[in-house]
Design a protein that fits this description.
Helices cover 0% and strands 39% of the residues. By secondary structure, it is mostly beta strands. A hairpin with a 4-residue loop joins strand 7 and strand 8. The protein is globular.
């Protein structure tokens, strides 16, 4: 079965940008409408944007011109450009076909921080 593979997430400050990629493993995006979704902590998965095999992209209302979806079938990749990120955009982002034909991948985590401090990194020294 074709597996959706997402990448490109990370930790950014408010107003920052990220570029997410969707490249299915073991299959092709050709002839498929590809959708991006996201799931924030404690919330249901929601639709973000989509791009048909032929035609124009579509966006959820909350995108408000901040995100842009594109595709290159020769590279077998769909991108989601995220600009002017806000804390409410923090979520795991997933891609799939309109009908959910791919096996769902693990998604890619996008975290938008409103503080000057980062989340830190854990260091553990074992004796």
């Amino acid at each position: 079965q074709v597996l959706a593979v997402e990448s490109g997430g990370g930790l950014v400050q408010v107003g920052g940008s990220l570029r997410l990629s969707c490249t299915p493993s073991g299959g092709t995006i050709r002839l498929y409408d590809i959708h991006w979704y996201r799931r924030a902590p404690g919330k249901q998965r929601e639709y973000v944007a989509s791009i048909p095999a032929f035609g124009f992209p579509d966006y959820a209302d909350f995108v408000k011109g901040r995100f842009r979806i594109s595709r290159d079938d020769t590279q077998n990749t769909v991108w989601l450009q995220l600009d002017n990120l806000q804390p409410e955009d923090t979520a795991v982002y997933y891609c799939n076909t309109r009908a959910g034909s791919f096996a769902w991948g693990q998604g890619t985590q996008v975290t938008v921080s409103s503080g000057a401090w980062g989340q830190g990194t854990q260091v553990t020294v074992a004796s």
